[in-house]
Specification:
Number of strands: 6
Low-confidence stretches: none
Order of helices and strands: EEEEEEHHHHH
Number of helices: 5
């Protein structure tokens, strides 16, 4: 069990976020997100009426179509379930994401275009895990293909000498750490053995 045993309790609310990445046959990529909020108790809303346990209060979908550089080519946003009838009226605003690139500044750019009354809180929140899923979907495939191409052309050493994209993005990829020492020794900045110093020269 990943967490310790909890105190005695009752379930109240469950938010589920599912994101999936797909490679399309036209060279682009689809990244889809689905968010639901479910209560464990029955309650009433003025516009939707009675909502029973298990029936999502919120059910939102987003699909971003991006290229290899993570630039957004198309967006589809759908509000399937909401407490207010007009929640879905804001989904056309999500077309403002077309042309943006997922990367540094993504969150700021999203807030500028869809923050506050310009967007839907839940759909905007969904863009965070969608961005991460886009990277997780595309980067490993392209990196593997790049290695295979370099190997076939006899240029694998030159490729390994290039600065890795993941370097210093997380504690595990710290340039002083063991993962970098093993995977990208030319980029390792920690203490070296005499053998490693000789190999680096």
């Amino acid at each position: 069990m990943p967490l310790s045993a909890p105190a005695e309790r009752e379930p109240i609310h469950t938010r589920t976020v599912t994101c999936r990445g797909y490679r399309r046959t036209d060279g682009l990529w689809d990244v889809e997100g689905h968010l639901t909020d479910v209560k464990a108790y029955e309650f009433h809303t003025e516009q939707r009426g009675r909502i029973v346990p298990g029936d999502p209060v919120h059910g939102m979908w987003l699909r971003l179509t991006v290229d290899n550089e993570l630039t957004v080519h198309a967006v589809e946003a759908v509000t399937e379930k909401s407490p207010y009838r007009t929640c879905g009226a804001i989904t056309p605003n999500f077309q403002r994401l077309v042309g943006l690139r997922i990367g540094p500044g993504w969150t700021r750019a999203v807030k500028e275009r869809l923050g506050g009354t310009q967007g839907c809180t839940h759909l905007v929140e969904l863009l965070g895990p969608i961005a991460t899923t886009a990277f997780q979907t595309i980067y490993p495939i392209l990196a593997r293909e790049k290695v295979e191409k370099a190997r076939a052309e006899g240029k694998e050493d030159a490729l390994r000498a290039k600065r890795p994209v993941l370097l210093n993005t997380c504690h595990i990829f710290d340039s002083n750490g063991e993962v970098v020492r093993k995977e990208w020794p030319t980029h390792y900045t920690g203490d070296r053995t005499a053998e490693e110093e000789q190999a680096a020269d």
